[in-house]
Design goal:
With 94 residues, this protein is an alpha+beta fold. It has a domain of 62 residues: Multidrug-efflux Transporter Regulator, Chain: A, Domain 2 (Orthogonal Bundle), CATH 1.10.1660. The strands form two sheets. The chain has a two-stranded antiparallel sheet with strand order 1-2. The protein has a two-stranded antiparallel sheet with strand order 3-4. α1 packs across α2 and α2 packs across α3.
């Protein structure tokens, strides 16, 4: 049976609890595709004039899990850049 998709708010709670998230779950937080997140895991992302990386661990079967501290740091930078770059009062997703 397929797994139920978590809401961004549920994922934020899990992240705050220190839980490592899968790339698809990180994608939900960023409002992006899973493929974009996998690209970031492999190459990093430029935000706020700096290069950010999300560390991950890989299971013997090849499944990746993303470091919660890195996800929080990159998510905060992504939100700051997006809000600052648009010049409006857009609220980050919850």
């Amino acid at each position: 049976m397929p797994r139920a998709t978590a809401t961004p708010a549920e994922l934020e709670q899990r992240l705050e609890a220190g839980e490592w998230l899968r790339p698809g779950e990180v994608a939900i937080l960023f409002g992006m595709s899973r493929g974009s997140i996998v690209y970031w895991l492999n190459h990093g992302i430029s935000l706020e004039g700096s290069r950010f990386y999300i560390r991950f661990r890989e299971s013997p079967g090849g499944w990746r899990s993303c470091n919660p501290d890195d996800v929080k740091r990159v998510l905060a930078a992504h939100r700051r850049e997006r809000i600052g770059g648009e010049g409006d009062s857009a609220q980050p997703p919850t």
